Amino acid sequence: MKLDKPVTGGPCWTELGTSDLASAKRFYEGLFGWRAETDPRQEAGGYTIAHLGDAAVAALTPLYQEGQPVAWNVAFAVPDADAAAAQVTQAGGVVLVGPMDVFDVGRFAVAVDPTGAAFQLWQARAFAGAGLLNAPGSLGWVELMTREPERAVDFYTTVFGWSVNASEHYTQWGIEGADFGGMVTMDDKFPHEVPAHWLPYFAVADVDSTAADATQADGTVLMEPTSVPDGPRIAVLRDPQGAMFGVYRADYER
Asked: Are the C-beta atoms of 100 and 107 separated by less than 8 Å?
């Protein structure tokens, strides 16, 4: 990721909806060195923010709705959540929740793109989003997994104005040339029941040791540590409750 702080149109936050908040806190604290603090207010519903030092880097939450999957979600920064939600609808997406205020910290909405991938919109007020990006233990890349790549490109370039850097094997998303994510076309190797989705990648100092640590903590390695030609070393993992996420070795010398 070429972004080191949230910018308009880019990924600004990621949060996990989990069936076992206490277990998830233990797993990710051990894996990434997070310090997780749960908001004590009853109206916060158990919302838990993970920190690295003083920087907020991610959130862990209970499942708030019936049928909500155990999964990581990605939020994108927008100047006006209501206007962005309207653009989502006009571009063929669906707004599932909101827009609605979250105390005094911001305004958000949950949406689904035309290919079936859920994501969030975040209009910052008191809280801008992640205080750290692309450093060990923080969000470093976001990847859209979809069976309809052309439709996805039309949608996201319309809603967010992203730049698209497409090669034969991979498509990268960017903001004015600063790439922050990519897109993978889901082929027959993906089970039919797996829907389109956004997958967050967390930067780590050592992909192989992180994958081993995840396994020892009852997680699962879905994609073994792999070196991408002319790219980073990556792995895809699953936590004990079933949420998928990626890890990669960031370029700390950029």
From this structure: yes
pLDDT at 66: 83
Condensed to tens digits (0 to 9), the pLDDT of residues 19-75 reads 999 999 999 999 999 999 998 888 888 899 999 999 999 999 999 888 889 999 999
Residue that is written with structure tokens 């923010």 in the block: 49
Measuring CA to CA, which residue among 185, 217, 222, 216 is closest to residue 201? Answer: 222
* DSSP letter for each residue of 187-250: -TTS-TTPPPEEEEEEEES-HHHHHHHHHHTT-EEEEEEEEPTTS-EEEEEE-TTS-EEEEEE-
Return the closest-CA partner of residue 15 out of 251, 227, 245.
Answer: 245
- Counting Cα atoms < 13 Å in the Cβ hemisphere of 116 gives 12
Confidence of residue 251 (pLDDT cuts 50, 70, 90): low
How close are the terminal C-alpha atoms of the chain, in Å? 10
